[in-house]
């Protein structure tokens, strides 16, 4: 009886150690430290994909235009428009402190995230997993007179906590 009990205990221990627990709401990545994980976790895959697509678009424009300076700061902002929640993604020279909820790092770029008091992001963001303090070297918009240009942006309609719908590319 002791051998059977010992065998079941060993089997149970091996099974538990080999089981990978995942959370379908957050990307599973193999990173050494929690601090490193915070740089990319905290946003759902659909939001991450939309931001990466926009970063790729801006990077391709920058490659084709030598007057287009490098962009290291992107903004993903949720706004309320009548009955709809919208997601607006754009690049910027500075960040604002108002409604700032945190940031993630994607493709070595800081993506500052903003939300409305009504929680318009519809749980596309897990605020607890975001970096909260703005990285050193990024300008605060309160300290900048004006943007030197009107940046292009992409607008999505937030449908639910797992889907967004492309609306348009436009300028702010």
List the main descriptive attributes of the protein structure presented here.
172 residues; alpha/beta; 6-stranded mixed β-sheet; globular; disordered N terminus
Description:
This protein is of the alpha/beta class. The chain has one domain. The chain has three helices and eight strands. It is globular and about 35 Å long.
Largest sheet: 6 strands, mixed
From the spread of the alpha carbons, the general shape counts as globular
Helix content: 10-25%
Our count of domains comes out at 1
Radius of gyration over all CA atoms, rounded? 21 Å
Based on helices, strands and strand pairing, what is the structural class? Answer: alpha/beta
**What is the assembly state of the chains in this entry?**
single chain
User: What sequence of helices (H) and strands (E) makes up the elements?
Assistant: HHHEEEEEEEE
Biggest sheet: strands side by side, in what order? 4-5-1-2-7-8
| Structure annotation, total helices | 3
| Intertermini distance | 74 Å
What portion of the residues fall into strands of 2 or more residues?
A: 25-35%
Report the uncertain regions. 1-39
**What is the β-strand count?**
8
Mean pLDDT: 75
């Amino acid at each position: 009886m002791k051998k059977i009990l010992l065998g079941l205990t060993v089997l149970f221990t091996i099974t538990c150690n080999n089981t990978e627990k995942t959370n379908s709401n957050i990307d599973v990545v193999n990173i050494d430290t929690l601090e490193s994980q915070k740089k990319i976790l905290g946003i759902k895959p659909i939001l991450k994909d939309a931001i990466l697509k926009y970063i790729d678009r801006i990077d391709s424009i920058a490659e084709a235009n030598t007057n287009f300076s490098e962009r290291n700061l992107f903004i993903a902002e949720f706004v309320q428009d009548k009955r709809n929640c919208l997601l607006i993604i754009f690049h910027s020279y500075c960040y604002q402190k108002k409604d700032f909820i945190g940031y993630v790092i994607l493709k070595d770029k800081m993506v500052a995230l903003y939300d409305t008091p009504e929680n318009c992001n519809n749980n596309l963001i897990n605020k607890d997993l975001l970096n909260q303090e703005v990285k050193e070297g990024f300008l605060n918009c309160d300290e900048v007179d004006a943007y030197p240009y009107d940046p292009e942006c992409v607008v999505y309609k937030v449908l639910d906590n797992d889907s967004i719908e492309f609306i348009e590319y436009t300028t702010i």
